[in-house]
Amino acid sequence: MEMLTAIRNSAVGLSIFAVITSGAIALTQVSTKDKILANEREARAKALYEIVPRESIDNNLLEDTYTVNAPTLTASEEPVDAFLARRDGKVVTVILPVVAPDGYTGKIKMIVGINADESIAGVRVLAHKETPGLGDKVELKKSEWVLNFNGQHYEGDEDPSWAVKKDGGRFDQFTGATITPRAIVNATGRAIHYFREHKTALLENKEKLIQQPAGAE
Known about the structure:
By secondary structure, this protein is an alpha+beta fold. The protein has one domain. It has helices spanning 2-51, 71-74, 179-197, 199-204, and strands at residues 65-69, 80-87, 90-100, 108-115, 120-127, 209-211. It has a 6-stranded mixed β-sheet with strand order 5-4-3-2-1-6. A hairpin with a 2-residue loop joins strand 2 and strand 3. It is elongated, with a radius of gyration of 23 Å.
């Protein structure tokens, strides 16, 4: 009987410990998830206003959005929000979420700001897993390479100069690392093509959702 009582007490103790441990893990996961989401929102807001300074527009970028479905830009079938920058009520810049699927070590999440005249307002990388000391130079805090997009135009339907210099283009690559900048340049070019195709809808908000079939160019 004493042995059965001891076993029963041990089982109860283990059960209580398991419940407490599971609860602690769940709380940690929830709090960690919330912190990650908050950090992502903060990073996105910072990047948005680096592309379009607050003082240059008269709306809230984070609240003025436009839903698009663009698999060739985001590598996903899920709708995403484009951000609209307005001045005197008119859209002057559209910031598109873009994913470069062909980074050296995986997908590169970024945003591309395009002005109404089709010039680039700015490009920022939000998340990546590129090689430290090489590919991570696409981050503004690591180098100013990404600023080379500012004011650039994509000439015509096909612009051979819209490439890294190793491929005969106008953009520098990094010493010992070409794949990462090439992926960023190509992804930015796709964003410009998308903007051109949907320019009227984006600037005048004539549709609630811009659809783009998977695989469309």
